[in-house]
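Troubleshooting: if your tokenizer reports a length mismatch, compare your output against this known-good record of 320 residues.
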Amino acid sequence: MGNAHPARFMDYHLYFHNDFDGIASGAVMLDFLKGRGDKIISFNPINYFAELQKKWPKFKFKKPFILVDFRYHPKADFWFDHHLSTFISEKWKSDFATDKAHYFGPKFKSCCGLIIFHLGKQFGYRPPHCIKELVGWADMVDSASYKSAKQAVELKEPGLRLALFLADDSYPLHQEEIIKRLISESISKIVKLPFIAKELKKLDYETKRAKKIFKDISALKDKIVFVDTTKTKTFISRYMGYFLYPKIKYFVIVMRSDGGYHISAGKNPWKKMPNKIAIGEMLGKYGGGGHKGVGGVERRTKPEILKVAEEIIEYLNKHG
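Known-good structure output:
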């Protein structure tokens, strides 16, 4: 493991999953370290990629480094995650031990909430009001604890507006600025920033368009709605299928990602059914991962990703 008891007054490199919870987790770490007199000197968003399983052990990190909301790495000086698929090998899993700077908590709705809990217990960390507000939204977004599919698709509340902005692959790389603002500003203020407000206006238009074209790029396959977003440039919410087809049990959505293609699969959170399948564990067999109810996996080519999608659909229909 990295350093079980990190030194004080250190300069760290932050690595965080490039989504709402990862950025929220980065903000918590920034606020905590700032209070100790430490600094974060580089902000490095990271996403899952096709050969992650193979390349992760030798991934080139700038050191010393913090890793949040992402796969476990034994060299991290601080590491926090809550994904069921976080350990890429049984050895890493068996060797892992919780300490002040390293914690795995799969029962937490968000990594952001996990970090606040652990730092509070180990270091007496008490977050400011804006961070407390942030964890509520991170819990909702990362665990899909929306009140309804309509709320998840329309995303009208400030925290959900920011999540919408961060979920769009076309947005400019403003992660560092957003993380720094989150430790001292309300989300309501942040989403009014010109570069965010402009993008959100475009995304609102695309949401309206997505409702119109959804049936052209989707197919109902027994218990599942399958969506191929590579057929359009319009942003498609992964919850759109549940909004338009509320009786569906699962979704499988294919989209473009950095250097390849991504599948997101999940259970309908508004439909009561037995928890027979842990989606994250199932996708771990393909080199992906996630939580009980949702997960993702990557491939380099479209034929490869469509083959995986076909196998996932077959499995969910048979066992779900």
